[in-house]
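Recap quiz, item 2
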Amino acid sequence: MSGPASGATRQEQERSRVTRQKLMAAAIEVLTEQGWAGATTGAIAERAGVSRGACQHHFPTRAALVAAAVEHVFHQQLEEIARRAKGLPQSRRRVEPLLNLLYDVYAGPLFTAATHLWVAAVADEELKALLLPLETHVGREVHRLTVQLLGLDESDREVRDAVRATLDLLRGLALANLLHDDTARRRKVLAHWARTLEAQLTPTRTTQAD
Amino acid sequence: MSGPASGATRQEQERSRVTRQKLMAAAIEVLTEQGWAGATTGAIAERAGVSRGACQHHFPTRAALVAAAVEHVFHQQLEEIARRAKGLPQSRRRVEPLLNLLYDVYAGPLFTAATHLWVAAVADEELKALLLPLETHVGREVHRLTVQLLGLDESDREVRDAVRATLDLLRGLALANLLHDDTARRRKVLAHWARTLEAQLTPTRTTQAD
């Protein structure tokens, strides 16, 4: 199992993984800067330092490439949030820093690229067909993570609606942050919403714990 | 004052107004369908049935044209909301239908076009310079209308933050609605948000009225 042939295969697999990652990182960069119209396969391959042939070998269409890139970066961000959340207090004081952490999912390097894609998909059926299942998946994952990090009981309808509202709020805040640094205003809004959430959610949890 | 010359001037002014409106309507349409990259002056003038020369006479650059178009349609939407809000009850039951009405500002025909513009401006300094003051203006106007329609006292910090959060939520909901009809989920979120707002805002107002 450790002969030269399998060694070469492992090396090939590693090279293939590195190439895919370069292409996905380049796709997000080019999308962010030039939008869907400018993010051609050629432009992405060039940015990645990869030949167009190799690009097409890994991703048959540019829509498949950018959808894979969005999903990949999104999962990296979720992992980072879960990791950083471990350092937060376990008490009610957890809510506000958690909201700020979750905001990073929406407003990270992915947001501008994803917004370009989503808005282009309004008039592009092929892209829309790729993004809709991705949107459902991404939405579920971030909802599940939020419920888990806030230590909530999802069977409660009020909890579900409060978490939905929280994620819609974060999405709106990320959009407001596109053209200028909106941090000062955002902190006030998130502090306000954290107090609201604490008041709404804590009694439910106490009742359930009794 | 009513001689043939001033009659001709009025006719010219009316023609000019109609041409501007055609160009602005076409700009929103082409932006929605093709994004900033596709919304060239030529494409917009063709859609409006106006010559490129006439287009340039009214709007020296395409950035000036689309910024004027966004502002124009935005004001039309604000007027429509103010008009429709007159039919709403004056009681607390006003909050939820008002939120649904305000949602229309964000998710109307303007939203896709504006999102294309905002995301393109991230990497386009000229466009960004035009949109930033427009964003400030639009944000203030919709904030003022919301405070007024909800009958709130803006000097209260909690009120200001609650209204800010509400508008961020509506923006996030509009983004969630881009690719598919999100109405069923949105109604739940807005119903939840309306109950929260009622609970937060009514006691403050009662205290102030005492």
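DSSP finds nine helices and no strands in chain B.
Confidence is low (pLDDT under 50) at residues 203-210 of chain B.
End of item.
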